[in-house]
Fold this protein.
Amino acid sequence: MGSDPACLATRWAHMNRNGDVLVNDRLVFLGDLTHTSQGYAAELTPYPVACIKAWIHEYSRHADTLEVDLFKDPQQFIDAFIERQPAVVGFSNYMWNLDLSYSIATEIKRDYPETVIVFGGPNYPLEDHKRKEWLEQHPNVDVYIIGEGEEPFTNFVDDWYETRDIEHGVLSGGSGVHALVDGRFIKSDDISPRVSDLDKVPSPYLEGYLDEFLKEVPLTPLLETNRGCPFTCTFCVDGISDRTKVYRKSIDRFEAELEYVAQRYEGKVLTLADLNFGMYKQDLDASHAIAKVKREYDYPYHLQVSTGKNQKERVLDCAEILEGSLRLAASVQTLDADVLKNIKRQNISAEKLIEVTKVANRLNANSYSEVILGLPGDTKEKHFGTVFQLADAGLKFIPLYTLMLLEGTVLATDEERGRWEIGTEYRVVPRCFGAYQFKDRQILSAEFEEVCVYTNTLPHEDYLECRSLALTMGLFYQDRILFELYGFLGTLGIQPSSLLSILHERRKSLSPALTDLFASFDEATESELWENPSELEAFTKSSPETIERYVKGELGNNVLFRHRAIALLDLVDDIHDAAFGVAREVVKETAPESYEEHSAYLDQLQRYSANRKRNMFELGTEIDDQFTYDFRVLLTEDFASQPLQLDQPLRVRFSQSQEQVDMINDQIAVQGEDLNGIAKVVSRIPVAKLQRLITYGESSESTGSDDGMQFASPTAISPGEFT
């Protein structure tokens, strides 16, 4: 085939059904699309598809003639497609954008049936019979590519442009290419493609392919130093055997990319796609590179990444190098040995977990640990035990997830579903819905997730109570809401779980407002679930008005964060009355002498704690109070010391810093000031950062700020955050 671009464009031109020549036959669109009705649902630059573009321009046989455009915004993608009509379109496929991408693909095929539609990504079954079913259910997808898409996508496009034969392109396009041809499921082989040397992938940042996306601060730059995960967790898309070998990028290349981003991006957050950051020796070099760039450019201020599941000493070394920018995750998912065996996962020991947490808290590297409800072999007792052990270990934040059955995971296979008798229902993914315009037609789209609601060891009623525990933790533990109280109790040898277990047992007999909140949460937990996904889809897309109800927050909210927002706005005093009331009972029973000695202190500690957290979203409010205990010393020691009584009352003022006011105003401007907006703010800013600062006496110097540099809450599996 000749190399002259004009010649190639002529040879590749073909007609649509209206007889019009597709003038952009050498044009390829790659969409890493996300819903935008409530801001970007997946707030990352389209780095994965940008890597495919970089590979095409470096290695395609037709690199000189192919043009590749990248998209994140779905409406921009649609408008550009209608205007320019590319011959090949590739879509990333995740659980948060499948319906969006496929709905757009359907409209494309309706008007431009010759357009080749290629999907790729982890949201795709592992079993061939299910893959065939998937392609039958998505007839407007011509080709599916599994694994890392750079090489197979390029090979397929090259072959298709030369032969116009999809079957030939599948069978000759290398590993990981699937299609349905004349009702037959065909594939190149059973291998999931990998890139063994990441430096072979030209950097989409250094090539300038992502410059336009770096200008959008709501999007977070996504980088990687390696790909792969040595662990084989059955619930994770990276737990398949093809992903166990870890391949790396050179540190020089990574540092060059990071410096390039730092020079152009005005935000503060960096997300690394690494799955076990800090577990390898090379991660120390990466940490030094990040720290070096930060010293020069004041970026990144916050690093979002999954830290290693073992080698915690090395992870701590990375955290120390990064001086608080790194969230330290001890993401156990469960602490039960049998459940861990069932999901083929290895965890650090509980003793090591406590040690790591203490060091992390000393480094101000916000510590957190994720727990998943409903894993194989899980029970109510095991779930409660894991959550309470983590609280007693001192983790600052404990996200509680509901198990999602994700396509592309071992757990979603027929064998595993049957083995554990997994029962599932469906719900709308928060923030993942919207209405989009394709010519004169409106696309109504919403994403759905399949969640486990019972197994052969977890009855549905126990599932519901475990979900209710998530609210108990949200009200009485998360984000250091009562850290002063837990600090004092720790001096008496009383663990947080002693309070939390009682508060949870009494959740239906607390104050009327708290009791109503738990009842509302329980009702919302059940009502958001649908047994039949087709009925849920039919309802969600029944009319533009229904989609608008989701967009406005009348439907499809994050149930947990919505109820936490209600509590933070209106029920801080109820929370303190309940927690301190139970604390007095526990202290009186376990340490009666201490109760007599510290009863007055508990009264003042409750007032002090509530003053810091009451009406945090009423900007500019200031509270003035007096105390007879030395809260100056207690605050410096994180309240983990015995109280000292003063000879003279201490005046304490509780107020917000300008930084806090600006932070809240900035977030409300983006998310909205209604309840749904506040819920989104709570999902993004650690509430500890919003607690009022302290000023003593006539001093003008405030103290008590959360020194942890990490801003954003832990990155979730989906844009639904912690649901």
Observations:
- The longest strand covers residues 423-438.
- Residues 1-19, 709-723 have pLDDT under 50 and may be disordered.
- Residues 329 and 694 are 29 Å apart (CA to CA).
